[in-house]
Design brief:
about 20% strand; seven-stranded mixed beta sheet; 7 strands; about 240 residues; 2 domains; alpha/beta; Rossmann fold
Length: about 240
């Protein structure tokens, strides 16, 4: 599906009926050939927006998957770069693509780091966390950063109510809720549970100072607002 190298419908169905961890273990060898991988345009726009804020020391990719975001850290960070994910399969693919990086298998709701990194990024992962789980995720990233460290990630604007994308994403989320109501373990993957205002509130509660910048290279909506913004969550510097 999606390309000759991508997963079949049967493979995707098996993944969706598994747990999140097992599902991504199964999908890992073909993940980079699906639309679920963060597009190069989003990665490039994020790198361009972060470059004037660097250089940084050590970098962390939270929910790194197959390592698509690792090249951003390599270009922006002068020290070692690390990816963390809980999927064995995804980390195996990431190690093959970036053997010079460091890889850690862990639940990112309990990150095993303390004041280690100067820059943390994440791409396309927030939909895998229920709103009640975001505080633990953001608190862990806050602990993992050194004073003055930055947590950055792109976030898309919601599609207009009358667009096909709005109804497609709504339908997907409803289907996932039905699936999780009737089958265990759940597969948490939602597109409409992390609006910018809610994410900003959770980051602020974790201790971050939050700003956003438009990723103008990714275009505008019909009303002139940006299609994507880069969230910049800064940890306070030591007095």
């Amino acid at each position: 599906m999606f390309s000759p190298q991508g997963p079949s419908l049967r493979e995707l169905a098996i993944q969706a009926l598994s747990s999140v961890e097992r599902g991504y273990d199964l999908l890992a060898p073909k993940f980079d050939h699906t639309p679920f991988r963060t597009p190069e345009s989003v990665l490039g726009a994020t790198a361009d927006a972060l470059r004037p804020l660097g250089p940084f020391g050590q970098g962390l990719d939270v929910c790194c998957g197959t390592g698509a975001g690792m090249w951003i850290l390599k270009t922006l960070c002068q020290g070692p770069v690390t990816g963390v994910d809980f999927s064995t399969g995804m980390l195996a693919q990431a190690r093959r693509a970036h053997p010079d990086a460091q890889w850690v298998q862990a639940d990112v709701r309990a990150l095993p780091f303390a004041q280690t990194f100067d820059l943390a990024v994440t791409f396309g992962a927030l939909g895998h966390f229920l709103p009640a789980e975001r505080p633990a995720l953001f608190a862990g990233v806050y602990r993992a950063l050194r004073p003055g460290g930055l947590f950055a990630f792109p976030i898309g604007a919601p599609p207009p109510l009358m667009s096909g994308w709005y109804w497609a994403l709504l339908g997907f989320d409803l289907a996932m809720r039905v699936r999780n109501a009737v089958r265990r373990p759940p597969f948490v993957m939602y597109y409409r549970t992390c609006p910018l205002h809610a994410v900003r509130n959770d980051l602020t509660a974790a201790g971050f100072t939050v700003t956003t910048v438009p990723l103008t290279a990714l275009g505008q909506r019909e009303d002139g607002s940006p299609r994507y913004r880069l969230v910049l969550a800064r940890k306070a510097r030591t007095p």
